[in-house]
Design brief:
The chain has 135 residues and is mostly helical. It contains 5 helices and no strands. The chain is elongated and about 50 Å long. Helix 2 (42-48) packs across helix 3 and helix 3 (50-66) packs antiparallel against helix 4. The N and C termini lie far apart (38 Å).
């Protein structure tokens, strides 16, 4: 007799974990808007502003509540978005130190800005549809 191993549906996330995911997307979106309309750049506002820093701290504090649910992928998506942005900014900063690398650094910053808008918009839209992120 063989035992069947049916695929289990992921558990439904806690309402508070879903709220935190929405708040994190909103905080990141606010940082992007500040970068677009303010004197800061999108990337600079995203990685160095209070909203984004608070957002990534919330991600780490509430990540356990989303474990084992479709929402877990959103927490990973949000955390990775923040840390990858920091990595690209650091690379651009190193390139700016070399005179030859300045044009490439600016291209990286523009590309990362577009990438950030995409990541936050795509993630938030999938969250609204209650669908996981594929990272």
């Amino acid at each position: 007799m063989t035992a069947s191993n049916p695929e289990r549906e992921p558990a439904e996330p806690l309402p508070s974990a879903l709220t935190v995911a929405n708040v994190v997307y909103a905080l990141h979106a606010a940082a992007i808007v500040v970068g677009l309309i303010g004197s800061a750049t999108v990337v600079g506002s995203f990685v160095g502003s209070v909203p984004s820093i608070v957002a990534v701290i919330l991600n780490y504090l509430k990540q356990r509540d989303a474990r084992g649910t479709w929402l877990e992928s959103h927490y990973r998506w949000q955390i990775r978005t923040f840390w990858y942005a920091i990595g690209w900014v650091l690379l651009a900063a190193v390139l700016i130190l070399t005179l030859i690398g300045i044009p490439l650094a600016f291209a990286i910053l523009i590309g990362v800005s577009i990438w950030l808008v995409y990541r936050i918009a795509r993630g938030w839209l999938r969250l609204q549809d209650r669908r996981p992120m594929y990272v």
